[in-house]
Amino acid sequence: MRLPILVCPVSEIIEKRRREADRISSSCDVETVRMLLGYTRAIAI
Fold first, then answer.
1. What is the pTM of this model?
2. 10-14, Cβ contacts within 8 angstroms, sequence gap of 24 or more
3. For the chain, first and last CA: distance in Å?
4. Which of these, 2, 42, 36, 40, lies nearest to 20 by C-alpha position?
5. What whole-number distance in Å separates Cα of residue 2 and Cα of residue 13?
6. Which end of the chain is more exposed for a tag (fewer CB within 10 A), N or C?
7. pLDDT of 37
């Protein structure tokens, strides 16, 4: 697994991840998880 080059401050990214994780755990939607994976992949590239 390659680490993405961080453009935003790390704390900002951690906050975003936390919010997204909360959203996933509350909705538990497969589509949401897929969308999130695609989103993180786009950031990694």
1. 0.33
2. none
3. 12
4. 36
5. 16
6. N
7. 79
Are 6 and 13 spatial neighbours (Cβ–Cβ below 8 Å)?
Answer: yes
Tokens 């961080």 -> residue: 6
What tokens does 1 get? 């697994």
> Could you give the CA distance from residue 10 to residue 3 in angstroms, rounded to a whole number?
12
Residue whose pair of structure tokens reads 């991840």 in the numeric block: 17
- Structure token pair of residue 21: 């994780």
Cα–Cα distance measured from residue 29 to residue 25, given in angstroms and rounded to the nearest whole number: 8
pLDDT in tens, 1-36: 565 555 557 778 778 888 877 766 665 567 777 777
